[in-house]
Amino acid sequence: MESRMNYYVFPRSEWATFHTHNFASVSDEELDQLRSLNDEVSLQDVKDIYSPLRHLIHVRYRDYQLAEYNLSQFMGEHDHNHPFIIGIAGSVAVGKSTTARLLSLLLSRAYPDKRVQMITTDGFLYPNAELERRGILNRKGFPESYDMDLLIHFLNNVKNNQGVVRAPKYSHQIYDIVPDEEEVIDHPDILIVEGINVLQLPSKQPIYISDYFDLSLYVDADPELIEQWYLERFGMLLETAFTDPTNYYYDYAIGDREAAFAMAKQVWRDINLKNLKEYILPTKNRADVILHKTTDHVIDRVALRKF
Ligand SMILES: Nc1ncnc2c1ncn2[C@@H]1O[C@H](COP(=O)(O)OP(=O)(O)O)[C@@H](O)[C@H]1O
Ligand SMILES: CC(C)(COP(=O)(O)O)[C@@H](O)C(=O)NCCC(=O)O
């Protein structure tokens, strides 16, 4: 283990040993289930990285429940049941939603009597028509492209158990907010919130998004690798766009492949890479845990915030 400023940095081999104490590691039966539900993440990563991470979340969740209980005792009240919220930050296409899906699965298995839900902040982007009206359609993903008031309100309502909470839904296929559809968050015990902006400071709001988090993760990788993953995902979007004229990428899918990839490379360079450097990377050192990925999404080291 290496100690850097306010982080302990563990090589994969050391981090992999942290699941053996107190809390069950991922079982073979769970691995079988994962294999059928998620064929992207390597099962070795589940054992070496995500099983210890689940252990860490368990430790933090236990502390959180105790702190909530103690506070309610102090106030002589019985209301100590606010959901535990985990934030996942990182670049566009670094693997935030894949990590969120996997953690959601692992936590649901660990706590069968708890309700685990997840949401992406993509749904809080302004619709394309509004971005266009503001003249910022080419700034999608940058701080000003999100309705931060709505996101803060949403988190506030979930954290304060304000019944069923609804949020807009974003689709990568139509490249816009889906009209007449919404995400429904219904009294979760654990909520996972993933998005490029979850550790950013608000410009006008009096409260940070991360004030609602009880644990935060940042998925990190070399931008050149992330570009490759972005282009691979773009290739997959083209594959599914072929048969669907309503798909945003339909014209690219039926047109010249080289031109399509040239466009995607330019979007990466001019929008997503710029956003990463200016607004996302500077939030890395606010995360409690930094998962560092190398080629093929393999995680080679994990940093854990000391204080
Ligand atoms: N652990 C992983 N192993 C293999 N592929 C992955 C992994 N994580 C993400 N991917 C792939 O990388 C691309 C980006 O992942 P995604 O979760 O969509 O990123 P984000 O939510 O950060 O934009 C997708 O094509 C996804 O299938
Ligand atoms: C919707 C997003 C801001 C969020 O990205 P995600 O983390 O879901 O990959 C991004 O996918 C996006 O559309 N960026 C704008 C430029 C582009 O890639 O088209």
Q: Topology, please?
A:
Blueprint: E1 2-4, E2 7-11, H1 12-15, H2 28-37, H3 43-75, E3 84-90, H4 96-110, E4 116-120, H5 128-133, H6 148-159, E5 164-171, E6 176-186, E7 190-194, E8 215-220, H7 223-241, H8 250-254, H9 257-280, E9 289-293, E10 299-305
Parallel strand pairs: 3-7, 3-8, 4-7, 8-9
Antiparallel strand pairs: 1-2, 2-10, 5-6, 9-10
Bound molecules: adenosine-5'-diphosphate (ADP) and ligand PAZ.
GO molecular function: pantothenate kinase activity
Catalytic activity: (R)-pantothenate + ATP = (R)-4'-phosphopantothenate + ADP + H(+)
EC number: 2.7.1.33
**CATH class, please?**
Alpha Beta
- The main sheet orders its strands as 1-2-10-9-8-3-7-4
Number of domains: 1
Shape: globular
CATH architecture: 3-Layer(aba) Sandwich
Total strands: 10
Pathway: Cofactor biosynthesis; coenzyme A biosynthesis; CoA from (R)-pantothenate: step 1/5
GO molecular function: pantothenate kinase activity
Catalytic activity: (R)-pantothenate + ATP = (R)-4'-phosphopantothenate + ADP + H(+)
Pfam families: PRK (PF00485)
